[in-house]
Design a protein that fits this description.
By secondary structure, the protein is mostly helical. It is 87% helix and 0% strand.
Length: 295
């Protein structure tokens, strides 16, 4: 009756051989093509350094004014602008300005890349059902995989530093923008599409001049979720050398510095609120605009 209490499993030697084969293949790939992989990602490293240096070295009043202007154009509400400026000043007064700018730089570049890759993938997912089925499975795996697991293959291939941290953040944060781009296009009213067909729109005209503009509020919700997930990965990515507020939190955990952890945690929350309010306000404005256009 032992079989009732002991779950059957594959031969341990077979499992060990499979693990060794996969790990060996990754190590061989790293040894054989490590330099080529690093050369391939070198332009990405330069882009990351450029954004980080630009934001970190800019005079702080200029940064505050720039973000306040962005908040105004997105929301057109002084309350949102005041909240954004107040949050930035509070982060600066806590002595976390430079680390906050590094974190904002990482989240900003990660979100840009996630949008640039995610929206075309969402369109492909919507256009081709077989591709959509495969991508749905891949996205399910990506969203249920523990975030730490993303770090393992990235570190094996690229070591530690900005680029592997950035890649891990993008992989973790990209599923919402893909899913919501597909959903937004699917939710476009069929009568509107029939009208576009009646006016003789080509497939690409229907996509870019009808479906994407009408799906924009849903896509903005996807961008908002992508930003939030990128911020959620900041602390985990600090384990492979990404600098900023996440690294401070990691050091606070390692050294049991409660106050340092709380201050940096609040700063991350503050940045999340800034991005969230700006993107949500812009999404609401788009919804109102579309609603007014249909009335």
């Amino acid at each position: 009756m032992d079989w009732l209490f002991k779950f059957p499993q594959l031969d341990p030697e077979f499992l060990l051989a499979v693990k060794r084969a996969i790990d060996g293949a990754l190590k061989a790939l790293t040894r054989g093509h490590g330099q080529s992989i690093e050369d391939f990602f070198y332009p990405l490293q330069r882009v990351l350094i450029f954004f980080e240096n630009t934001i970190s070295n800019a005079p702080w009043p200029l940064v505050v004014i720039a973000i306040a202007v962005i908040a105004w154009f997105a929301a057109r509400r002084w309350a949102v602008v005041a909240a954004v400026v107040g949050t930035l000043i509070a982060i600066g007064l806590l002595g976390l300005w430079q680390d906050a700018m590094k974190t904002i730089s990482l989240v900003f570049t990660s979100t840009l890349f996630a949008i640039a890759i995610g929206i075309p993938l969402g369109i492909l997912m919507n256009r081709y059902k077989r591709v959509g089925g495969v991508m749905q499975t891949v996205l399910d795996v990506m969203q249920t995989m523990p975030p730490f697991v993303y770090l393992i293959p990235v570190v094996m291939l690229l070591g530690i530093g900005r680029v592997p941290g950035f890649i891990a953040v993008v992989i973790y944060a990209i599923p919402p923008i893909i899913r919501l781009t597909d959903l937004g296009i699917r939710l476009v009213d069929k009568e509107v599409l029939e009208a576009a067909d009646a006016y003789g729109c080509s497939r690409s005209q229907k996509l870019w001049k009808v479906q994407i503009p009408l799906a924009m509020p849903t896509i903005m919700a996807g961008i908002n979720q992508t930003i939030m997930m990128a911020l959620g990965m900041v602390v985990i990515a600090s384990m492979i050398g990404v600098q900023g507020l996440g690294l401070n939190v990691l050091q606070a955990i390692a050294n049991q510095y409660f106050t340092q952890g709380i201050f940096n945690g609040f700063a991350i929350v503050g940045i999340a609120i800034i991005f969230d309010r700006i993107s949500q306000a812009y999404g609401h404005r788009l919804q109102k605009h579309r609603g007014a256009a249909h009335d």
